[in-house]
Write a sequence for this structure.
């Protein structure tokens, strides 16, 4: 009886070890689809902010944190965000966006004037955008995701470095 019990325990231990090794090697071979920076912030991205008239107002120079891809109000996916700010001095500003990316989709930053005319946008693979802004004018920053597919979630942070 003791030999049967020991043999059974030994077989159970061997099978569980083999299964653990197999699962670990399988997990190592699964490609990671998303490069994540896990940026969490102060809740700057307040929905809905997907249109010019609903843009979240921010201070130029303060960090902006947000997400793209979440289901909003149970019916629509958040596919871009808008932020409105005013330039108080004529200065060169470098905007930088950091965040998640997928092989087919990345974060894109676009600067527009108060009439919605595009001033400058980032290209694929770029995460910075620089422009001399004029004092007293309102501007918008739009965060979009070229190649977005439902189910993809992007956390991001936008920072602005103002020329001294």
């Amino acid at each position: 009886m003791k030999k049967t019990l020991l043999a059974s325990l030994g077989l159970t231990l061997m099978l569980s070890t083999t299964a653990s090794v197999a699962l670990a090697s399988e997990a190592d071979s699964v490609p990671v689809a998303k490069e994540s920076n896990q940026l969490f912030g102060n809740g700057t991205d307040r929905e809905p902010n997907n249109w010019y008239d609903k843009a979240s107002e921010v201070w130029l120079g303060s960090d902006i944190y947000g997400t793209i891809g979440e289901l909003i109000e149970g019916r629509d996916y958040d596919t871009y965000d808008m932020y409105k700010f005013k330039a108080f001095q004529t200065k060169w500003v470098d905007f930088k966006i950091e965040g998640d990316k997928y092989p087919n989709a990345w974060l894109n930053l676009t600067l527009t004037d108060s009439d919605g005319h595009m001033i400058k946008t980032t290209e694929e693979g770029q995460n910075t955008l620089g422009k001399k802004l004029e004092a007293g004018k309102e501007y918008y920053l739009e965060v979009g995701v070229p190649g977005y597919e439902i189910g993809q979630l992007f956390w991001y942070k936008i920072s602005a470095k103002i020329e001294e």
